[in-house]
Amino acid sequence: MKLVVGLGNPGSGYAQTRHNVGFMAVEKLAATRQPQQWRTTFQGFVCDLLLQGEKVVVLRPMTYMNNSGSSVLAAMQFYKLPLADLLVVVDDLALPCGAIRLRASGSAGGHNGLGDIERALHKLAEAQQKTGRDYARLRIGIDAPGRVPQKSYVLEPFSAVQKPLVQEALAAAEEAIEHWVVSGIDATMTRFNVRPHTGEN
To answer: What is this structure's pTM?
Structure first.
């Protein structure tokens, strides 16, 4: 069994903002494979999928982005999952809009949601002889904010130019998630970590 977590903020006011692209990705994944049958648990919304014979639990924490860790930890503990079975989908200011990039582990890179997950998973990770950083993440590019303050930029909707690029990224993310479920993080990084429109690593 695998756990796929999309990060974002709850509420209609945040629904189409750049910071919620993690929510968008897992919602698209669920919507194209079964009717939306989300239930409330683990301080969030959860649905179950079957991807090529593998059970996948999809989680959208409703704790607000900066407190995502408690929701993720609750799900990990309930299902008794190793960190290798966790994938977190999140926005990334360092990637161009339309790009996705996978990592097997790593720092939060200044992302408050990832930072909170790292802190929450610390003790669980120690029991597995890992660190709180040792989980896979799929980053979806939202472009750098430029002169706009970062806090404002991530909480604004995508621009008209960005919207079609985001849809491309969401389609790629959907395919990458399924590939990760079946083939693991190393094979998925090899296949999907290419620059958009160029095919280069």
So the answer is: 0.95
